[in-house]
């Protein structure tokens, strides 16, 4: 995945819409076996190259790239994540908002994630979510969410990924 700075227009959009959003976390509905793929209660071992303006927490101007390992609850390796994040905005309440993009490779297929995350909430142990789209394999065309919660700062996260087929239109 190419590491590129988010477009200036995206920064402007963030400054405009993020102050209006009070809760950036997502929720998952119970998937059905025939229309959804759910990977839940995963351990995400993070390998982060962090370029921080302040080592004690998220700060506007920080950038990171990460190559993470995903394991299922039994400890079996099920995939990898390659991604980038940029801290781009500080809300009036002090929370730092980041833009992330990632590519997740699983046996079932490839997933692309992107979106806004409240990095301050991540540091407090709160769940955060990114949009997810299946771009290859059995997951191609499925849409959903990737959720993370930090367990050990910059080292270990709990993760969920749920993708569902879009309903047919006709």
UniProtKB/TrEMBL annotation:
Gene Ontology terms, MF aspect: isomerase activity
Organism: Amycolatopsis bartoniae
Pfam families in alphabetical order: AOC_like (PF18678)
GO biological process: antibiotic biosynthetic process
InterPro entries on file: AOC-like
UniProt superkingdom: Bacteria
Domain (Allene oxide cyclase barrel-like) ranges: 51-163
Protein name per Swiss-Prot or TrEMBL: Allene oxide cyclase barrel-like domain-containing protein
